[in-house]
Amino acid sequence: MESALMSEDPFKLSLGNFIANESDDPLQAPPSFTNWVRASAWAAELYEPEMLATADARTTIRYDGKPLSVINLCSYNYLGLANHPEVIASAHEALKTHGLGACGAPVLSGMTNLHRELERRVAKFLGREDAMLFNSGFGGALGTVSGLLRKSDVAILDNRSHLSLRDGAILSRCRTEKFEHNDPNSLDTALNRQKGRRQLVIVEGLYSMDGDFGNLKELIAVTDAHGASVFVDEAHSMLACGKNGRGAAEHFGVEDRVRLVYGTFSKAFGALGGFVAGPKDTIEYLRFYAHPYVFSCALPPVVVAGILKALEIGTKQPELRTKLWENADYFHAQLRSLGIDTGTSTTYVIPIVIGERERMYRLCHELRRRGLWVAPVDYPAVPLNRVCFRACVTAKHTRADLDEALNILEDTLVPAALQNA
Ligand SMILES: Cc1ncc(COP(=O)(O)O)c(C=O)c1O
C-alpha cells in the first residue's frame, strides 16, 4: 500500500516521519523517504558539502558542480589548530615513526607511546588523576554514559542534550528523565521524582545548536543538594572556554565539583576523537565497560601526535582564546544591530534563526552563491519554528572576513525579513 506521505508537501515532512516500516525488508529504505529526499533535492544538496581545502576561515567548497571560494562559518576549528603548521609537522613526523593506523583496539594492541603520552598530558592539563582516549567523540560520550549506568539507575538529561548522551543512556537500559533546558527548578523536580535510585545528571558545557552555556553553577548546586552525580560534556567548550582552556567548568569556577570531565578532540583541538578524565578507579573501570573503547580500533597515532601539539599550542597561547572571544563578541554585536535573531547564544556558536523551513533553504543557497558558507539546521535538531543557520566564528577569522560575512547576511536576510514582514 502506498504511504500517504508520498503526496505530502515535502516541507511539511521531517526525518521524524519516516521511522515506521513500509516494507517487509529492513534493508529497503522507506519509499516515502526516498521520494521525499528526491522531491526536496534542491534543499538536501546543501548538506554534506564537499570541502576542497583545509577547514580555514576562508576555504573552497564544491557548489553547483564547481569550486567556490567561501568565508567559512561552518567549522569547529575554533582555534585554527586543524591546519596549524606545527600541528601538521607533528602529524607528519608521527606518520614516519608510527605509520598510519593503530591497527588494534587499545586494550589488546592499539596503544602506542603517543597515546599514553596524550592520556598523561590530558590528565595533567585538567588536574585529574587519569584520562582515557576514544576514537570518536560520539563513541566516547555514548561509551562513558553506557559504561557507568546500570538498569536500576536513572539518567537525568537536559532536554537539549546531544544524541550521543541520550543513546548512551538508552544503551545502558537505565531509566531516563529529561528536565527543561538549563532550568534548576525543572531539574529539582526530576530528581525528586526519581528519588531512591542512583542518579546521574547529564549536561553540556556549551550547547552545540543554541550556542548558550550550560547553567553549570545552578544545576550543580541542585545536583549536590540531592546527593546526585553530574557528568559534563565539554565537547564544544574544551580548550576554547575558560582562562586556561579547561572548558565551561573552568569558566564558571566549578571544576572541583565536576568529578568526571568529557571532551572531544574534534572541535577546538581540530582533530578527531574524545576523552574522559577523572578519578583513576573510575577510568580503570571504564577501560573495561565502555564498549566503544574496548571493542574499537584506537585513534591513529598520526592524529594523536597532532592532538599533542594542538594541546601544547592551545595551552601556551591563550591569545588564541582571546581572539576567538573578541570575534564572537564582535559578530554578536553586529548581528544584533542588524536585528538578526540569534536566540540565547552568547558564544562563538551562533544560530541565525529563520524559523521557516523552505525559506531557510532558499536563503542558504543565496548565501552560498554570494560566498558565505553556513550550515542549515532543520527540525528535529531544533524546534520547527526555530530552524536556523548555524554560524561558528573562529580565532582565524579576520575583521575583514567577519565584515564581509555580515554584509552578505545583511544583503540576503534583511530585505528577505522585510519582504516577509
Ligand atoms: C555535545 C556533543 N557531544 C558529543 C559530540 C560528538 O563529538 P564528535 O563529533 O567528536 O564525535 C558532539 C558533536 O558535535 C557534541 O556536540
Explain this structure to me?
- The protein has 421 residues and is α/β, with parallel strands linked by helices.
- It folds into 2 domains: 133 residues, Aspartate Aminotransferase, domain 1; 232 residues, Aspartate Aminotransferase, domain 2, CATH 3.40.640.10.
- The chain is 41% helix and 15% strand.
- The chain contains 15 helices and 13 strands.
- A 7-stranded mixed sheet has the order 3-9-8-7-6-4-5, with helices on both faces.
- Strand 7, helix 9 and strand 8 form a beta-alpha-beta unit.
- Helix 3 packs antiparallel against helix 12 and helix 7 packs parallel to helix 8.
- The two termini are 42 Å apart.
- The mean pLDDT is 95.
- Pyridoxal-5'-phosphate binds next to helix 5.
Strand content: 15-25%
Rg, nearest Å:
22 Å
What's the N-to-C terminus distance? 42 Å
Mean pLDDT value: 95
Residue runs with pLDDT of under 50 for 5 or more positions? none
Heterogens = pyridoxal-5'-phosphate
Shape: globular
The figure for the number of domains is 2
How is the largest sheet built, in terms of strand order?
3-9-8-7-6-4-5
Q: Biggest sheet: strands, sense, closure?
A: 7 strands, mixed
Helix/strand class:
alpha/beta
CATH homologous superfamily heading of the largest domain: Type I PLP-dependent aspartate aminotransferase-like (Major domain)
The proportion of residues forming helix, as a percent range, comes to 40-55%
What's the order of the H and E elements?
HHEEHHEHEHEHEHEHEEHHHHEHEEEH
* Secondary structure tally, helices: 15
What is the level 1 CATH name of the largest domain?
Alpha Beta
